[in-house]
Amino acid sequence: MKNILLASHGTEGALAAENKVLEMCAPGVRVTHLLVIPEFWKDMLGDDWLNNSSTRKRFEHYLEMELSRETNGHLRRVRDRLSKTSADSAHEVVLGKPDQCLTDACEQSAYDLVVMGSPRPKRSRGLRSQMMTRHVTRRLKTPLLVVPHPCG
Q: For residue 15, what is the enclosing H or E element?
C-alpha cells in the first residue's frame, strides 16, 4: 500500500484507525488524513433563542472558534503521530456529509486503501458517525479497511 486515505475525526473508533495506519507506515507510503466537519454544524444558527443579530454573531463566533480549536487539535495530533514515522503525509479538512466527502476524496485522488474506524457500539455514549453508509458501499471503488471499535 503506497497511498492511504485515513478518515479520522478524533473519536475512539477513529483513533483505532489511526493506530492501524501507523502500523502500516513505511518509507514510500503516503498518508492523507481526511477530517470531515459534518455539515449539521452550519444549521446550529437557526435556533429561535438567537433572536437578535448581536446574540447571533456572538454565538456564530463562539461556534467557529470551538470548531477551529477542535479541528486544529485533531490535525495537530495526527500530524505529530505521523511525523514520527517514515511516511509522507497530507491533511485535508472539508465541510459536508461525511460519506459524500469520503467518496469525493477517493474520486479526486487515487488511493490504494481507505482506513476508517467502525461506528461506536450502540451502548456507548456519543455521536454516531455517518461515514459508513450505503452511499459509501455503493460508490467507493477503493479497498476499505474498517478497524474495529476498541469497545467491541
A: helix 12-24
Is 42 within 8 Å of 101 (Cβ atoms)?
Answer: no
Q: Are 114 and 143 in contact (CB under 8 A)?
A: yes
d(CA 24, CA 55): 48
Tens digits of per-residue pLDDT, 37-46?
887 766 666 5
DSSP state of 112: S
Whose cell is 474495529? That residue is 148
Name 5's bridge partners.
32, 114
Which residues are bridge partners to 33 per DSSP?
A: 6, 91
Helix (H, G, I), strand (E, B) or coil at 138: helix
User: What is the residue-wise DSSP string for 32-99?
Assistant: EEEEEEEGGGGGGGG-TT--SHHHHHHHHHHHHHHHHHHHHHHHHHHHHHHHTSS-EEEEEEEEE-HH
pTM: 0.85
User: What structural domains and CATH numbers belong to the chain?
Assistant: 3-112 (3.40.50.620)
Which stretch of 28-32, 62-66, 89-93 has the lowest confidence by average pLDDT?
Answer: 62-66
